[in-house]
Each structure stands twice: as C-alpha cells, then as structure tokens.
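Trying the structure run again after the queue cleared.
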Amino acid sequence: LHTVYYDHQAAGDVVRYRTSADGKTWSAPEAVSPLEGRNWGPDIAVRPDGAVWVSYDHAGADFRSQTWFRERSAGGDWAAPVALTPGGENESGSGHLAWAGGNDIAFNYIGKKLGPEYRFVANWRWRKSGLWSEPVPVSDPTIDAWHTNVMSRPDGSVLAGWDEGAGQSETTVYVSEGR
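Done. Tokens:
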C-alpha cells in the first residue's frame, strides 16, 4: 500500500509519502516536496514492480503555481524533482498521473497564465521512453476547465477526464482515451 498526502506545518504544507506491507504498520513519513511554501494537490501512481511516481503543486502567495514530479524505483531513492508545468506567470493544478505500461506515464492538469482574463485549459503530457512530451491542450480555451483525472487500464491505455464550465454552476464532463 502507498499513500501521499500534505501535512500542514508552520513553514508551509509538506507533501509526504508512506508505504505499508500490511495496512497496519506504516513507514516513517518521507517529504517529497520542499519543506516550505504551499505544496498541495498530491497524486500518486505505482507501477506493478513497485516504482512510485508522485506529483504535487508548489504555489506562491500570488497564485503562481507549478506542478512537480518525483519518482523512485522500487526500493530506491527519490530522484530530483522535475517540473511538469510551466513556471513564471502561470498557475496550474488538478494534476494527475497514471501508469501507461512499461515506463510510460500519462499526466493531465489544468493550467493558465495569471490574470482574470485567462481561462484554465486541460492539458495532456506523456512520458514515453523516458522523455516528456510538450503539453497538449484538450479543452475549449474560451471557458474554464476545472477538474482533471486519469486512470490506467490493464492494457496500458489510459482514460482521462475533465470538466468545463463557468464555475459554481453546471459543467460538462469530457472523457478521452489514449495510448
């Protein structure tokens, strides 16, 4: 069993990882995010061989945010963080990971430039053969996308979803599949 969560501390929210072989005894918490700032929205995917992938959002006080990725081979150490979304004058969130067969990963999230004139757009990214693709927008850029999710299927394909709408009102859910 594997879990990832954020732990509120005086210096900020820390994303932590724990594992258990029996669901009763858990490993000591391991920090996978910086120990300061706002770190939230963690997600986790675990490959059948025990390799672990974690994503989380690191946000500034002015709503700038960026999604980061950490990975650990089965029984190994955590690799250095890798940025999955653009930094700078951008905001991202609702990032989710899924195993896509072999060493491949599907990642989807919402992102936009800072400012009320911009809309959140749902995006896909893939890591195939160790290389990340550029983000591919999949939602209508004229209306906000809100939540994303992605799930792996036994054949290595993935099923992703997101919703679009004005917020605090009716939204439309979209589903897509990929390989």
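The chain has no helices and 15 strands. Worth checking whether this holds up in the mutant runs.
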